[in-house]
Amino acid sequence: MADIIADHGHNVTLFQPFHIAMKNIEGLVKNENIEVGSKNNLKLTNKHFRSSTTIRTNTRKTETFPMFWDSHLMNNPILQAFMMPRYLVSQLQRTAVLLDELKSRNFDVIISESIELTGFHLAHLLDLPCIPTMSAVRFSIFNKLFGQPSAMGYVPHIGSNMAPEAGLFDRLNDIFRNVLMLNWMGRMADLQQTFIENGIGRPVPHWKDLIKQSPIYITNSNPYLDFAVPTTATIVHVGGITMDLKQMKHAGKLPKEYVPILNERESTVLISFGSVIRSFQMPDNFKAGLIKMFESLPDVSFIWKYEKDDAEFEKKLPKNVHLRNWVPQAALLADGRVKVFVTHGGLGSTMEVAYSGKPALTVPIFGDQPDNAMMLARHGGAIAYDKFDLQDGEKLTRTMKDMVENRKYQEKAQELLEILSNQPIDPKLNLMKHLEFAMQFPNLRSQVPAINHVGFVAHYYLDAIAFIAVFGMLSVYGSYRLIRKLPVRFLSKKAKDE
């Protein structure tokens, strides 16, 4: 986003606190007017004011989340709703302290990620407008602030079928999981609010009141990839701004070590579970299922991003498996010899595989990954695969064999690529037009539906529905009593006449 905004002539200061040792930021910022320091020093430059400052932070080891693989606590929807907020917020607490050092800076607008709320409170302290962004496709509790109705029935929850196949138990499951999801989202935000107030030393406006002040809400959804959901003009979908089709088609030469691997067999499968979830931390029974698949498909080569050198584990693998601590993912996906991508379903990888035209076996681990997996699978070029079924080597083999040999996955993946390549509005242009509009009209609120400001009962017309239902039942009951009396009166009158 910083590159795109700077390329359109705006002065941009990028602030990314390096209290976590992120190695994947280097080389991402291309515009020469944006300066980002090393992982220990962050240089902030504002060209308009010709001033800069350096924030020094203590870098610690990058946090990973191995418990999301198979922990019965973290994978239970009820326990997860209470445990996940506190666990994730503990990783964000340090940022609230770092951003306090930016108060002396002078800016026109702040653009802040809405998972981490400190930017909104900083904007409030500086009396600046703040535009919220979401690196995921959606975060229901924030979408609701900008007038988007519930996505239940439009987006499937884990364990539910979508309409028209959905039945009563699917809808009950949707309600159950939706309530729990909104609960943990709200708890995570409330915990951050507490940390911020403790850091500042006084109460601050509620996070909901700060976020909904913006005229727009920028999400990483692409309407031609995402599920079709009701929305409002205030929610701006810019999914795909990180994708450069020309660059993806010419991703550069592969390192020489990969050439003989790709030439070994007719088909090659790339396996990567991202940077937060590590393959070497995968439970042994999951690994055993993968090994059984490797052995059952000797005519397929596998390149597996495995982040740890483990000679003993390598001895268990057949010759068609190649472990690498790091892989040139974009270059491999651009190569025709790679037939399938096995991914955890992070949105970055989901976008990348969608724009590469490659079939994908998506194995979501946690967070937004299940939604991303189902979002990609609905187009027909991917399969959403339950992580607990990794231990079932036979099922995994059948699934992989079908994806490698059945051309329908390749055809559907290519069809999706054609759609994304020809979408009517370029995501980068969509971002800039709405961003500049929001900066011009920072106080615009008219595009949030007025009904969004009423309570739950009035919003869903429950009082009117209840009134009609009660009135209808009373009318039916009254008509019934009246009809019952008519024959009695008629017979009584007839008897008198005789």
TrEMBL record:
Signal peptide: none annotated. GO terms for molecular function: glucuronosyltransferase activity; UDP-glycosyltransferase activity. Pfam families: UDPGT. It is an enzyme of class 2 (transferase). Belongs to the UDP-glycosyltransferase family. InterPro entries: UDP-glycosyltransferase, UDP_glucos_trans. It is a single-pass membrane protein. The keyword Acyltransferase does not apply. Keywords: Glycosyltransferase, Membrane, Signal, Transferase, Transmembrane, Transmembrane helix. Its EC number is 2.4.1.17. It is found in: Membrane. The chain crosses the membrane at residues 460-483. It catalyses: glucuronate acceptor + UDP-alpha-D-glucuronate = acceptor beta-D-glucuronoside + UDP + H(+). It comes from the Eukaryota. One of its GO terms (cellular component) is membrane. Its main location: membrane. This is glucuronosyltransferase.
